[in-house]
Amino acid sequence: MSEKVNPKTEKITFNIDKEKNFSDWFTEIIKTAELADIRYNVKGFLVFQPWSVLSMESIYFFLERVLQKKGHKPYWYPAVIPEKNFYLEQEHVQGFTPEVFWVTEHGAGEKLEEKLALRPTSETAFYQMFSIWIRSYNDLPFKTYQRAQVWRYETKATRPFLRAREFHWIETHCAFETEEDARAQVQEDMETTEEVLHTILGVPFIFFKRPQWDKFAGAVNTFGADTLMPDGRVLQLPSTHLLGQNFSKPFNVKFTDSEGQEKFTFLTCYGPAVGRIFAAVCAVHGDNKGLRFPWAIAPVQIVIVPIGMNKDKNVLTKAHTLKEKLQNAFYRVEVDVSEKMPGEKFYFWEMKGVPVRLELGPKEILEGKLTVFRRDTNSKTQILEKDLLSFIEKTGKEITENLKTQADQKFKDVLVSVKTKAEIEPVIVAGKIARTPFCSTNMEGNACAELIEKEIHARVRGTRIDVPQTVSGNCVVCNKPAKETVYIAREY
Amino acid sequence: MSEKVNPKTEKITFNIDKEKNFSDWFTEIIKTAELADIRYNVKGFLVFQPWSVLSMESIYFFLERVLQKKGHKPYWYPAVIPEKNFYLEQEHVQGFTPEVFWVTEHGAGEKLEEKLALRPTSETAFYQMFSIWIRSYNDLPFKTYQRAQVWRYETKATRPFLRAREFHWIETHCAFETEEDARAQVQEDMETTEEVLHTILGVPFIFFKRPQWDKFAGAVNTFGADTLMPDGRVLQLPSTHLLGQNFSKPFNVKFTDSEGQEKFTFLTCYGPAVGRIFAAVCAVHGDNKGLRFPWAIAPVQIVIVPIGMNKDKNVLTKAHTLKEKLQNAFYRVEVDVSEKMPGEKFYFWEMKGVPVRLELGPKEILEGKLTVFRRDTNSKTQILEKDLLSFIEKTGKEITENLKTQADQKFKDVLVSVKTKAEIEPVIVAGKIARTPFCSTNMEGNACAELIEKEIHARVRGTRIDVPQTVSGNCVVCNKPAKETVYIAREY
């Protein structure tokens, strides 16, 4: 177990078996690495601290860069949405109203003219403006996004980064001429998820087409990315939604086509939540000693630990010279000048997940060498000081690649095919995902899904669309001929 | 007057006399350049569009970079603050409660256990956490900030970017051992303002120490940066506040000093609002043809306009080659491939404020030359294509420097010394700031300030602290011996 101590003054040795005891590991690393503080005095709300914020800002940076490259333009919408907007799309109001926080008063208790929702999601804000802005096919595709917080009155137990009443995300909203264009956007959203979450952050996932009973309120179809947490439960990462004309009709988002015909647009939306993505990065890559950051989003990429700095002034001078050299090459670098013993510093920065540590003492200086510790492999090596920049460039890439390979390896064998209901639970208990024949992912299949939830406490995640799927046999619950092959798992 | 037309399909010639008719100019440029849309259906709230968002994101970038360099760490605090937190600091609750939006319900109208304020500012959120985190002098200075939105139920007329019920800002919150340290932080905040607003954005301002009746609710002293808008009214840009122990006592933000004594910390906060800063940039640098962006925050820095692209395919190929070359050097570049006539394209991007335009036709390609238009000087020149990168590097700097020099020039003669009350109004009407002897900026001077506000519709902005001030003569209102030299102006 971890000792709960002040990192600034006392020794930390974080040591929790992540695989066996993930829940403890996650709770303790949030405290020990100072990722977030749950002691804020509003239930379900928390304060995110610098070590997570710096990393989540990097996640925002990469998501926004990819979105902008693909033609999405950034907007800032109001945080409040008038009550009447919600009532325009029936499924949406039913799905979201129970979760809405309402702003009803101002000043010394005066009533507002109209109740305002703190946005739980922004379809009903974006599309009323789309109806003003979009006029003709020349305006399409119309691809937007915003970086924002949303608020949802969760009734389930909240957990930092995983489920809270306030979270930070990006939401994209796009309008198209045809359903085909909209479907292509959903495909692009899945590729965006791959580019950022898998390639840059090393987090593996599978996109499932959700069953009709589990889609976004108001969508035609929802596609959600699931990753597997160390305790064998899946965590939903970004989801993308084909909204069809479900919102464009009530919000009157029309365009005139090239032949002068007025038509309703087809809409899509996509919602990567940076807090959840950050949680997945911590959970997937962390080890028993603490966090392990992929290079691109490490708040500090390189920590320099001077050894014997009180005895030899050259050590600190050299440390700062190296810091400057690395910073000029755009790396994020710290020199640990605290009064702790080197060993304590090592433990601390390993727990914090800094990818590379440089150790530097009089001996290293004399020899023109540096001792390098890599957090991904927990191993030390020596390099020539003159090779530092090229070494770091190479190693940064290697570290991300290595974390990704390790995570992919664990994820590879996670899908287990079963043919009967009795076989599902052992798979789930082993922390894997069961693949089974299933009657239907349309509403008529919901009864079977509910039975699985009741008996096995697991949920039907949907069908795969990334690889060709064969369907054979009968539904493992109702024994009717299977129309789908679905995946079943426990979820966060 | 501007023609209100769809920029995608029709010609735009923006032409409003900014100096003579600033109010129109500002309203129209917001619409024509698509900076923000006021048609969102909640009063006082608006939608910020890509052209302003991209620029405001750059303003965030520079502010955050400077703050982080000076040791501020980023946090994300909840958007809601429990009602009880507000009641801990008496002046603060009186100052802010009238402006608070209250979240009181969830779901289908169920009451929350406790009313939650949508943060109008976050002192009462930050300092309760400071009281948990700060233990000893080793934890000090404790320097934080967050990028956030705040909400205030403004009763004055709202104006896009200038006064709205929701705005985007940064707020810093810092804790110190001594009042001296806190005062040094206030000084540093003023330097940060200079570094970003003046050096990078070219917007001149003066910091005034606000009179006691105009300070931040709960502060010991408030220092606000005023710039002058083209209509002669001042606009408050960032303000920084010495809070002393006014908040640390009720919120119990204590530390143990090096001798083991428990003491209350001294607190400061600083709040640059990016929307206002953006408005100042537009207003100060714009001309009758539209916006003129300083280089660092231009959403597009260089627009390439191909001439005769339908006749000669090389033109478009070359345009894209140049774009790529410039993008690889980290510039923000667009090629205008629309079907508009070149002249229309020129007007459009000039109105949008893009600093540099490259014109490129078959003739230029043949000669290995480029025609360059600079928006700051509205002048054309020719360069050799091979010199493009070095030319852009030099010109980017020159443009910012030139806009800054022009703005400084106008700002230079803005302060006019007067000795009598009768002399104030003509100075104000001429769009300047009156400098007068005044009885006092403590509360006993408020009556004189109110008289000025009533008779001249102008406000006492405070005293200067950046240059030595002499005080002589009697108060221009009550004729008592003057204790201060104050500055009087009309404000936004």
SSE blueprint and pairings:
The structure is a homodimer of 492-residue chains.
Chain A: H1 22-32, E1 36-37, E2 47-48, H2 50-69, E3 73-74, E4 80-82, H3 83-86, H4 90-96, E5 101-106, E6 110-118, H5 123-133, E7 142-151, E8 166-176, H6 179-200, E9 206-209, E10 221-228, E11 233-244, E12 254-256, E13 262-264, E14 266-270, H7 274-285, E15 302-306, H8 313-328, E16 333-335, H9 342-352, E17 356-360, H10 362-367, E18 369-374, E19 379-384, H11 388-412, E20 415-417, H12 424-429, E21 433-438, H13 446-456, E22 459-464, E23 484-491
Helix pairs in contact in A: 2-6, 2-7
Summarize the structure.
The structure is a homodimer. Chain A is an alpha+beta fold.
| CATH architect. name of the largest domain in chain A | 2-Layer Sandwich
Instruction: Provide the CATH top-level class of the largest domain in chain A.
Output: Alpha Beta
Shape of chain A: globular
Distance between the termini of chain A: 24 Å
CATH superfamily of the largest domain in chain A: Bira Bifunctional Protein, Domain 2
Structural class of chain A: alpha+beta
The number of helical runs of chain A is 13
Q: Give me the count of strands of chain A.
A: 23
Residue ranges of chain A: pLDDT <50 for 5 or more in a row?
A: 1-9
Oligomeric grouping of the chains: homodimer
- The radius of gyration computed from the alpha-carbon positions of chain A, rounded to a whole number of angstroms, is 25 Å
